[in-house]
Every structure is written in structure tokens, then in C-alpha cells.
Write a structure and sequence with these properties.
seven-stranded mixed sheet; globular; alpha/beta; 13 helices; Rossmann fold; binds magnesium ion; binds adenosine-5'-triphosphate
Length: 288
């Protein structure tokens, strides 16, 4: 099992869109069994992956009632953790465009929130980690109980707080989407500091690199910055990038990853290429 965190210290970098689509490509094209863990209190990934349940409930998020969340997994007493984790793992069922029965494609999720949908959920966890009441090892303990997955992908928010520190300190790999804009470029040194601090605690952690996102081929600034990033990051910049495309939003809105929503479109192909490059980079790291 390989655990890959999708982390950027900038908001809106397409972490959630990436986890949504890359997990799907891993399952569809590589036959992998994938678990995604949503640790972002906004619950965007949770809502996208569980949208079929929402539809079943006439558009209401009441479906989340009773579901155990990642917070429950973290706060469970050790002797109960296995059962709580098992209970928290939900199958992702993808609706089809023409309204057929949703189908399961080997992707499971641990959701970030339950029925109250409060964004303050997980702040408990942040506090208990920072006061030392639970150790940062708790995510490792949860991962030890999830069962037999090829990949665990973690969606995170952009903070540098205890929860995200823990996610990186429990991961094998981290990968960083970077939007081609001045603020994102300026955030790269802070990312590198954050990564180095986590690596000093988890020396197993490897950064697979940065990939540019939402690139608009007609944008002269994006072209120049892309060239600058190539110089700045060298081999830490992926060859693959994602293009600006409305299909990315349509697929999120419908709760259907691009590889099933519209496999022939450019952005769907971008995610296939990105997944391939992630796997190639993992292979390279593991050979060395
Ligand atoms: N290729 C794309 N083209 C156009 N829009 C996109 C593309 N990919 C993602 N988006 C949109 O960009 C926005 C940011 O994406 P996303 O929510 O995945 O980023 P994030 O890093 O998870 O953000 P947050 O900081 O809110 O967690 C969303 O509105 C998403 O629908
Ligand atoms: Mg997100």
C-alpha cells in the first residue's frame, strides 16, 4: 500500500479535483483498489464522491447522518479503532450520465464530515494533536487498520497546521499541484520549508514534484511562468500539466470522475497522463 498526500500551501490549487480524478484513473486503467481520505473540513471531496447519496435523498445532505468520519477514526480508543475505521469506509458509487444505476469501481472513501456539516469538525482533532492529547501517530494507526488497498490518496486543505503535518508525516509520497499565477509561485519556498520539516520527522517521505494546473494555452503570463518554473524547479516539475477546461467542473458537479464522465476530452487525458507520471516517479524513487 502506498499513501500519497496531495498538498499545496495555496488554496484552490486543484488538490480535490486531482484526488477525484487520479483515484479514478488508478482504479479504471490500473485495476487498483483505492481508498481516498478527505481531511479537508470543507468536505468538497466527500460531497463529490458521495453525490449519488445526495441525489437519493432529493439533494439533501442528510445522508451523512450516522456515517463515521475520519474524526471518529482519530478519536476512537485504540481497542475500538479497527471497528470504527471499518465502519467509516464507504464505497464510492458513481452515477452515470444517463441515469442508470450507480456503479462501484473499487474506490472507497473515509469522509471528513457527518450530518451537521459544520466546518469546525476536525478542529477538535487539531486541538488534541497540538495539546498532545492524541499523538501524530494516530493517522498511522488508522492506516494500519484500513485493510488491503493499493493506494491511499489524502485530500488536504492548504494549512500548515497539525492535521496536515500529520498527513505528510504518515505518507510515503506527497505531490503538489501549482496554479500558474504569481502567488502560487511565491508560495513554493514555504512549501519546501514545510516539506523539509515533515521529512525530518518522516524520512521515508518523498516529494514526487510539482505539476502545473489549469494552464490556458493562450495566456501569455501562464506561458512565461511555465518557462520560469521549468528553470526554477528542474526535474521537480512534472512534464504533465492540466489544462483549463469546463469539463473538470461538469464532472465534479455530476459526481463522476472525468475518465467515466467524458474519457475522450483533453482534461480527462491530462489526468491519465498525470497518473502515469506519478506512477513513473514512484517507480524511480523506489528503484533508487
Ligand atoms: N482543469 C480545470 N479547469 C477549470 N477549472 C478547474 C479545473 N480543475 C479544477 N477546477 C476548478 O478549480 C477550483 C479549485 O479546484 P479544487 O477545489 O480541486 O482545488 P483545491 O486545491 O482542492 O481547493 P481548496 O483550497 O478549496 O481545497 C474548483 O472550483 C474546481 O472546480
Ligand atoms: Mg480541496
Amino acid at each position: 500500500m502506498r499513501t500519497i498526500s496531495f498538498y499545496s500551501n495555496k488554496g484552490g490549487a486543484t488538490r480535490t479535483t486531482s484526488v477525484f480524478n487520479i483515484s479514478a484513473v488508478l482504479a479504471k486503467n490500473y485495476g487498483a483498489k483505492v481508498l481516498v481520505i478527505d481531511t479537508d473540513p470543507q468536505a468538497n471531496l466527500t460531497m463529490r464522491y458521495m453525490s449519488y447519496k445526495t441525489l437519493e435523498n432529493g439533494g439533501s445532505y442528510a445522508w451523512i447522518d450516522g456515517i463515521s468520519t475520519i474524526e471518529d477514526c482519530f478519536l476512537a480508543p485504540q481497542r475500538m479503532r479497527k471497528a470504527v475505521v471499518k465502519d467509516a469506509i464507504q464505497q464510492c458509487m458513481f452515477p452515470t450520465k444517463n441515469g442508470e444505476e450507480p456503479s462501484y469501481h473499487n474506490i472507497d472513501i473515509i469522509c471528513t464530515r457527518n450530518k451537521d456539516m459544520s466546518e469546525t469538525t476536525l478542529s477538535n482533532v487539531e486541538q488534541t494533536i497540538s495539546t498532545g492529547s492524541i499523538s501524530k501517530e494516530v493517522l498511522n494507526k488508522v492506516l494500519a487498520e484500513v485493510g488491503d488497498y493499493d493506494y491511499v490518496l489524502i485530500d488536504m486543505d492548504s494549512s500548515i497546521g497539525p492535521l496536515n503535518q500529520m498527513s505528510l508525516e504518515s505518507s510515503d509520497y506527497v505531490v503538489t499541484p501549482v496554479h500558474v499565477d504569481p502567488n502560487s509561485k511565491d508560495g513554493i519556498p514555504s512549501f519546501s520549508t514545510f516539506f523539509s520539516e515533515r521529512k525530518s520527522i518522516n524520512n521515508h517521505l518523498e516529494h514526487l514534484g510539482f505539476y502545473s494546473v489549469r494552464v490556458n494555452g493562450n495566456d501569455s503570463y501562464a506561458k512565461e511562468l511555465t518557462a520560469e518554473l521549468e528553470g526554477l524547479l528542474g526535474s521537480n516539475l512534472f512534464d504533465t500539466y492540466t489544462k483549463e477546461a469546463s469539463q473538470a467542473n461538469w464532472s465534479l458537479d455530476n459526481g463522476i470522475p472525468l475518465c467515466w464522465y467524458e474519457p475522450g476530452c483533453q482534461i480527462a487525458k491530462n489526468y491519465v497522463a498525470l497518473t502515469k507520471e506519478i506512477l513513473y516517479r514512484i517507480e524511480q524513487k523506489e528503484e533508487n
